[in-house]
Amino acid sequence: MNIRHVVIETYLGPITIAAKDETITGLYFRHHVRRPLRETFGPEISDATDSLLNEAVRQLCDYLAGRRRQFDLPLKADGDSFQHAVWDIVKSIQCGDTTTYGRIAEQVGDRALAQQVGQAVGANPLCILVPCHRVVGSNGALTGYAGGLKRKQTLLELEELPAGDVGRLF
To answer: Mean pLDDT over residues 147-151, rounded?
Structure first.
C-alpha cells in the first residue's frame, strides 16, 4: 500500500491532497473540520515525483484559476453506504449550480434525512473534488463547510465567473 500526500499553497491557504495507491483519498484545508491526523497521510512528497498527485495538483490549480469546471481523477473516499450515496449525488452537482440538504435527502429516499445528509456532506474527505461547497441551506443561505464559510463563498463566487476570470475575486 502506497500512501502519500502533497501540500500546495493556494489563495485559499495550504491544501493537502492525499493518495493511496492509484486513487486520491483526501483533499483538506489546514484548519479543516474532521481533518485526519497528519500521520494517516503517509509521507509528504513532491508532486513532481508522483504522476497521480501531479495531475491532481494541476487540475486543482486549473480549477482555482477558473480554467477548469470539473475534475477527472480517480477518487476513493472511506465512508459508509449512506455517505457514498450522498457523495455520489454531490458529485453530480454541476459547476455554478447549488442544491440543498433537503433535496439530497429526497433523492436518497426521505426528506426527513436532511440532518443525516448534512452530516454526510460534512464528512466528505474530498472537498472541492466532490463539491460539497455547492450544498446550501433550504433558503439558499450558506451553511457549514469543513473549510469554513469564507472558503465556501469564495468557491461559489469562482464558479459564477466566466471561465478564466478569477482575477475579479481579488
So the answer is: 90
φ, ψ (nearest 5 deg) of residue 143: -125, 180
Average pLDDT value over all residues in the chain: 90
Model confidence, pTM: 0.91
- 132 included as an active-site residue: yes
- Give the pairing type, strands 135-136 and 99-100: parallel
Map residue 121 onto helix, strand or coil. Answer: helix
Question: Which CATH code fits 81-161?
Answer: 1.10.10.10
Instruction: For 13-50, write each residue's pLDDT tens digit.
Output: 999 999 999 999 999 998 777 777 778 899 999 999 99
DSSP states along 15-82: EEEEEETTEEEEEEETT-TTPPPGGGG--B--GGG-HHHHHHHHHHHHHHTTS-SS----B-----HH
Catalytically annotated residue among 61, 95, 127, 132: 132
* Residues 22, 28, 30, 36, CA torsion sign: negative
Sheet of 3-10, strands arranged across: 3-10, 13-20, 23-29
